[in-house]
Amino acid sequence: MRTTVGIIGAGPAGLLLARLLHNAGIDSVVLESRDRAYVERRQRAGILEQGTVDVLREAGAGERMDREGLRHDGIELRFARRRHRVDFPALTGGRSVMVYAQTEVCKDLIALQLKEGGPLLFETEALAVEGADTQRPRVRFRREGVEDVLECDYVVGCDGYWGVARSAVPDGRTFERTYPFGWLGILADVAPSHDELVYARHDRGFALLSMRSPSVSRLYLQVPADTDADSWSDERIWDELERRFEMDDDWSLRRGPITQKSVTPMRSYVHEPMRHGRLFLAGDAAHIVPPTGAKGLNLAVGDVVTFARALTHRTATGSEDLLDAYSATCLRRVWQAERFSYDMTTLLHTAPGATPFEDRLQLARLDRITSSRAAETDLAEAYTGFPIG
């Protein structure tokens, strides 16, 4: 089998890259180890930055998002039984974010790829990337029990931290931080208790009120990193959420049936470089952020947009300048997102063993954001998204 770009992984990054290449007249093959049903129900991110929304529209994948997604023009910060709304459009020249689940993005892109694009091979396990430093890299894969080879001009690894692409980059340097807490997340069949996301800093720990639709709530609680989600009863979860969102006004938390619960670890990670020869890393294969800043999916989008632009430029002009700059271009944006995600995490979470001094510093940082337009603008600009490329 032969193609121009071999894409490993059919998450949002791999699927969007295939779409962008198709629109540019460049052929690709997508290899995905899981079946279609698994990919379309895999719960992950739910916040799309302005730039991601724009890219999906331009790629022809925004029709259902615009119809069913929830545009959000701000977030609410809660601390010390106070609340403050951050108005994104007023602070950023009109930018906003969209609540639209990763599962729905994948469904839209899969449908487009199967209808119009190149091969999208589910239940196809990538085994190794070979010859990345040559003009003809190859991906060895197994499909229906039979091993085969995909010969490419370029390989893009969108297969996550545990995938084969990252391990094929020799002599890489990694930077990481593991946090001593995680998020206990739930999906609940109940209308959201607020029309925008609520980020709550509380002495008992962080909490986040989010949503997937007008009838489905997504909520999170800071818990110790080794927490077993099943050890928390539904009643205990709702009681703890009420405590952490508590206010002095008449706001109340709506309760409903919990349909899913899980614990998400908190980690920061960057692999440098993001390229070796003709192998390019994108998304979680190259970087991971704690979910506090809502950056994971959006960073992956930035990576594949950067690659697609670079390859389109190469096809049109013969110049490899943008391909050669891929890693440096992506990493500038990655490190800004890492910085913002770290800042949001340390701003809102209660660290084990935190001293009273550290607690007061958190409150002082929140006071600064809510009393300074400059500080508030910095948060709004980062949350709605850094420029791509």
Name a few traits of the molecule.
alpha+beta, eight-stranded mixed β-sheet, 29% strand, six-stranded mixed β-sheet, 389 residues
Structure, described:
This protein has helices at residues 12-23, 36-41, 50-58, 63-68, 88-92, 102-116, 164-167, 234-244, 296-317, 321-324, 326-348, 356-371, 373-384; strands spanning 5-8, 28-31, 47-48, 70-72, 74-79, 82-87, 97-99, 120-121, 124-130, 138-143, 146-151, 154-157, 173-188, 197-201, 207-213, 216-224, 258-272, 275-276, 279-281, 287-288. The strands form four sheets. An eight-stranded mixed sheet has the order 6-5-14-15-16-13-17-20. A six-stranded mixed sheet has the order 8-2-1-12-19-18. With 389 residues, it is α+β, with helices and mostly antiparallel strands. The longest helix has 23 residues, at 326-348.
Tell me the total number of β-strands. 20
- Overall mean pLDDT score? 96
Helix content: 25-40%
Largest sheet: 8 strands, mixed
How would you describe the oligomerization state of the chains in this entry? Answer: single chain
- Low-confidence segments, given as residue ranges, are none
The fraction of residues in strands falls at 25-35%
Number of helices: 13
Look at the helices and sheets and give the structural class: alpha+beta
> What value does the Rg take, in angstroms?
21 Å
The coarse silhouette is globular
Strands across the major sheet, in which order? 6-5-14-15-16-13-17-20
The separation of the N and C termini measures 32 Å
